[in-house]
Amino acid sequence: MMYEIDLTDVVIALTKALEFTNEDLGYHHERVAYIAASIGKKLNLSEKDYETLFWAAYLHDLGAGAKLVDREIHNLDKYDTAHANFGYELLKDVPFFTEVAQVIKHHHTKYINFTSAEKNSPLAFLSQIIFAADQVDLYLKPNKLALLQRNEIERFFRKNVQILFNEDIVEAFLDLSQKESFWLDLTTYYIEDRLKTLRPKTKILAGEQGLKLLTVPFARIIDAKSPFTERHSLKVAALSGQLAEIAGLPGQKSLIEIAGLLHDIGKLSVSNKILEKNGPLNDEEYALIKTHPYYTYYLLIQVTGFEKVAQWAGYHHEQPNGQGYPFKLTKDQLDLPSRILAVADKWVALRENRPYRDALSIENALDILENMAQKEIVDPEVVKLLKENIDYLEKSQEEEIGQITGKTNEPLLS
């Protein structure tokens, strides 16, 4: 089956989740995308190069997403290439984003450190634009009007022509800088609105495997947030897909797997101090935990074509008895894929180590899940399917993960 997807929708929605990792990242990707896109327009880039630049600008800190949990963005070295290389590794095999990956790889490389051949490469040039845009945003002091910082930043760029920055890029930036509106557009109030006029209007037809590969990097970042969840999303995706097939929903299997990959994307908003607490949560901590499926739903619903994915992923803590969260839906409001994903999430969690307990045996996990089913915390029929097929599901888990990621022996993030 083929799906029509707006790639910019996907990029914007999923990148927004990265900003959950720390408040200091708020609107960083949007500002860098705005600055880079404005420079790209000024330089009259081709449509294809402009698309690549825009997406790479939004995704440039993808490799830092898992590393910025409970840290400050300004503690990162401005010229550190480690997270740039990591972002490249995450995206290099993703259809539609192979060139974006190349651009991200060098977005922290100083102009002077490119070889002569690289300086003339179109993709390296796009990297240099993002590097310049990123430096502008990192240079800006958040508590001071951007317009009042214009002269200082202009001096910084003039001083570093042919050292940090390409001369043509500096010239384009300095020309843009003359407009007060350019700096005023960088304020939080207007940046997203201004980006609407700059975003590429690119819709692509993606096959099921291509769509999964598009979302796998984000699942990896989600899972890397804590050592206790290092493959959680991959396992939930695999189990959800298998249960969907057994339940007679083979046509929906791929979208259900995508929902599994992304179901915890809202959890990037939750501090590791809460996720890794070795003991019961207090009321405030539990309230914060309850935010994550809400964020998951509203991040994914922004992507045209992901309406069902948003529901299945965002409803994974809803319960047939109506006592789940955050929407308090009841059984008649939860379709079968939603109920499947909820069971898969709980099963995988029971079988994983947690700060307060070791992974449970299959027998103990089934006992707990069946008890939940009796109370309609989870769907009894889905639990029955799981129990009847447990040997097959457990033995085929790694093979199923390999099919989703396009790889066997899928490595963990480090």
Automatic annotation (TrEMBL):
Can you give the residue ranges of the HD domain?
A: 25-139
Q: What is this protein called?
A: HD-GYP domain-containing protein (C-di-GMP phosphodiesterase class II)
Concerning CDD domains, the annotation shows: HDc
- Read off the PROSITE patterns from this record: HD, HD_GYP
Q: From which source organism is this entry?
A: Carboxydothermus ferrireducens DSM 11255
**Which ranges carry the HD-GYP domain?**
207-402
Q: Which SMART domains match?
A: HDc
* Segments crossing the lipid bilayer: none
